[in-house]
UniProtKB/TrEMBL annotation:
CDD domains: DPM_DPG-synthase_like (cd04179). It comes from uncultured Geobacter sp. Transmembrane segments: none annotated. This is Glycos_transf_2. It comes from the Bacteria. Pfam families: Glycos_transf_2 (PF00535). Residues 4-106 form the Glycosyltransferase 2-like domain.
Length: 112
């Protein structure tokens, strides 16, 4: 199963890098992380683009205007499905949900 971490991001310019860099090695090697910049007025979009350029597993998607948390989730899930994702842990861009737990969040689904 292909793991696809969805990261809804709004006003996350200061925290997004730490979240991406805290994801488990298994995500970097076998999965992907989709950062959805939800029309953020700060530098979140630029940070997401920079991270996508630095890390092959990281993908930046941008909303031109804010669609809210649910809209960002839907965009991330749709993007992940289009790229072959099977399991979708959600991690917040402020680190509120521990990024290093992303693989463990997938375990119940992967084990059936």
């Amino acid at each position: 199963m292909k793991r696809c971490v969805v990261i809804p991001s709004y006003k996350a310019a200061q925290t997004l890098r730490g979240v991406i860099e805290s994801l488990p090695r298994e995500i970097a090697e076998e999965g992907m992380a989709i950062m959805v910049n939800d029309g953020s007025p700060d530098e979140t979009g630029q940070v997401a683009d920079q991270l996508a350029a630095e890390y092959p597993f990281a993908i930046a998607v941008h909303h031109p205007r804010n669609r809210g948390y649910g809209g960002a989730l839907k965009t991330g899930l749709k993007e992940g499905l289009s790229r072959g994702g099977d399991v979708f842990p959600i991690v917040h861009s402020d680190g509120q949900y521990a990024p290093h737990m992303a693989v463990e969040l997938c375990a119940p689904i992967e084990s059936g």
